[in-house]
Specification:
Blueprint (H helix, E strand, L loop, with lengths): L9 H12 L5 E5 L6 H10 L5 E7 L8 H8 L5 H4 L9 H4 L11 H7 L5 H17 L3 E7 L13 H15 L4 E6 L2 H8 L8 E5 L5 H9 L5 H11 L3 H9 L3 H26 L2 E4 L2 E4 L2 H9 L7 E2 L5 H9 L3 E4 L4 E4 L2 H12 L2
Parallel strand pairs: 1-4, 1-5, 2-3, 3-4
Antiparallel strand pairs: 6-7, 8-10, 9-10
The protein binds adenosine-5'-diphosphate (ADP) and magnesium ion.
């Protein structure tokens, strides 16, 4: 399959460059709807980062992390150690020794085994801090990126691990100014929690990587030979969601593909609501189980018949959690709004709500 080139995200790139050009003071949370291109954006950005900075990119997506050992294994690039040979006296020569592709926190295997036997997460943080400091002093400002951070949101290691991690990030940024820290997530309930977290107040900033705006979408499609009519149609149905635009680029019959995508999304939503109506469902919020009210869900979705986005306080909490967790709605706590995860989702919601 043909690889589609990265389409520039000028505004977001500028914002991150400005952050990287200054000394680290805040944690940056990069958030946005699913498939808006956060990972792609960050990876592209990493490619353009000058040699004076050293990026550690850790993606927790698809990693099965249910305990401390698994978290530590993902955090550190232990598996790669054999491939790269032993990194002796890692503190001094490390900057020159590491291959370009190295992305986890480097650690020799035997040190890893002894250091983390005790299962004390603070040891791991002390180690990471030491490594980052070595890079810093070696003239390579470290940048730590953790993608899909919510994966460990509920993990308990003698208390919630995420709080320890936040504390550690605050230390690296606000206190020591040692490393830039970017935490990326598609999970808007996680971001909502982060947003209301007292310990992070004044210690972090939020960067939204949303679907492309209209001009960016048009420019992207223009580059792939779309006519003006096709561009209008694509924007009307798919908005600026990169994954859907890629589908359209790859197909011969764009009109038919749009219809198919919408039919599919509407069908999924119908099935989802039918199942809820007939079988009911429950959700856990703050460790309590709640029944889902079908009527409340319909009531919430009907708000989108006339609006593209709504005030985030206008839906009851249970329905909000349920619809966000099921990737139907996206919540943006920084702007105080809720909207469907994509333009296609909005149209599917409208289509299905017409007949309910
Ligand atoms: N700026 C872009 N230019 C080209 N393709 C993109 C761009 N952003 C995202 N994509 C494509 O869209 C898909 C979803 O992007 P991804 O970064 O995985 O989303 P997210 O991390 O926000 O869930 C990927 O297949 C990616 O290649
Ligand atoms: Mg991603």
């Amino acid at each position: 399959m043909r690889k589609i080139e990265f389409h520039d995200r000028e505004k977001e790139t500028k914002e991150i460059r400005a952050i990287l050009d200054n000394r680290p003071t805040l944690i940056t949370f990069v958030y946005g709807p699913i498939n808006s291109g956060k990972t792609e954006f960050i990876n592209n950005l990493i490619k353009g980062i000058p040699e004076t900075q050293k990026v550690f990119y850790i993606n927790l997506r698809g990693r099965f992390i249910s305990n401390y050992d698994e978290f530590i294994k993902v955090l550190f690039d232990v598996e790669h150690e054999a491939r790269y040979g032993r990194i002796k006296e890692f503190l001094k020569p490390i900057v020159n020794v590491l291959p370009e592709s190295y992305s986890g926190i480097p650690i020799p295997k035997d040190m890893f085994l002894t250091l983390f036997k005790e299962k004390d997460v603070e040891d791991a943080f002390v180690y990471i801090e030491t490594v980052l400091r070595a890079f810093c002093e070696g003239g390579h400002a470290p940048v730590l990126v953790i993608d899909e951070l919510q994966v460990i949101g509920d993990l308990k290691v003698d208390g919630l691990l995420i709080y320890k991690l936040f504390n550690f990030f605050i230390r690296l940024t606000k206190e020591l100014h040692l490393a830039h820290v970017f935490a990326v997530t598609s999970d808007s309930l996680f971001i909502e929690n982060v947003y209301s977290e007292a310990m992070l107040e004044g210690r972090c900033r939020y960067l939204l990587v949303d679907d492309f705006d209209e001009a960016t979408t048009a420019a992207f499609l223009e580059g792939h030979g779309f006519t003006d009519d096709e561009k209008v149609l694509a924007w009307e149905y798919c908005g600026g969601k990169p994954v859907y635009l890629l589908e359209l680029i790859r197909t011969d019959n764009r009109g038919r593909e749009i219809e198919r995508l919408l039919r599919m999304r509407a069908g999924e939503l119908k099935t989802f609501l039918k199942t809820l109506k007939e079988l009911g469902d429950k959700i856990t919020v703050k460790e309590e189980r709640y029944d889902i009210s079908y009527e409340n869900i319909i009531c919430a979705l009907k708000m989108f018949l006339d609006e593209e986005e709504i005030d985030m306080w206008s839906i009851d909490e249970i329905s909000k959690h349920y619809l966000v967790r099921n990737n139907i709605l996206f919540l943006d706590p920084d702007r105080g709004i809720i909207k469907p995860q994509s333009r296609l989702n909005l149209l599917a919601v409208r289509e299905v709500m017409k007949d309910v």
